Amino acid sequence: MTTALRARALGRSYGRRWALRDCTLDIPAGHVVGLVGPNGAGKSTLLNLAAGTLAPTAGTIEVCGGRPGDGPGQLAKVGFVAQDTPVYAGLSVEEHLRLGARLNPAWDGALARERIARLGLDGAQRAGRMSGGQRAQLALTLGIAKRPELLILDEPVAALDPLARRDFLQSLMEAVAEHDLGVVLSSHLVSDLERSCDYLIVLVDSRVQVAGEVDELLAAHHRLTGPRRDPARLPAGQHVVSARHTDRQTTLIVRTEDPIHDPAWSVSGLDLEDLVLAYMDPQGETGPRPTLEVRR
Ligand SMILES: Nc1ncnc2c1ncn2[C@@H]1O[C@H](COP(=O)(O)OP(=O)(O)OP(=O)(O)O)[C@@H](O)[C@H]1O
Q: Pocket residues for ligand 1 (CB within 6 Å)?
């Protein structure tokens, strides 16, 4: 497996406070990866560590085979669009492209111009006068045109309206298809991730709760509803992710590779949002959460 990102016991602290602590994670190359988790889970910290804009306090991180921020070669491999899609308010679109060409050795000027024209952006317009969606598209264009191996996007669509979000994600998907680009994208909008990502990571309190290909995760998780019972008495191959009980009924989210034969359960599938919530919601927890990775 080629690895896009590999973190081992990775940590970053500010004074005595840990923003990310003891995070171990492997992201295989060649995927569009959705990173999701509650506020404060450490997603932005992880992505900044991956881009090299933050240095680790503990542990190690490797991205596309190198140490983040370790010289021009490594910087060229990774594109990063930080939260709030930062662009220079005083610079025009054209000036951003010229800056991109100056700073990035593999800069694809033709690609950048073609995207700007396709999006209908005015080359002379200053970024500070553009809409949030246009700024996000400009930032994405800069990220793609540097022709990185891995593009990291931290909540790129958070401020966009649904239409602008759809256009942005469509544009990202086109770039992935055309330019053989790996992407790691953090978002709270699971429906957007469902549309754009083929690999999911749920991070809670610095820990990976679940990671794997979306199709495989959805195939391996089920909702079981039936008469109230103790989840501890399920067959060994059924891992309980979350459990809720009323006086008479139990609803479980379980992960299993095996068929569920027990006729007392009514079994149904999950969508991605159900799956994410099951791993994020501590109320539904019945014991220590397994750190699961779907093996290929
Ligand atoms: N510069 C900083 N100084 C002090 N604490 C910080 C700093 N940056 C982040 N933290 C803390 O680290 C924790 C993780 O923050 P981070 O921004 O990585 O989370 P996140 O998962 O991206 O959250 P959100 O979904 O809200 O964007 C939070 O508790 C945050 O308060």
A: 14, 17, 19, 37, 39-45
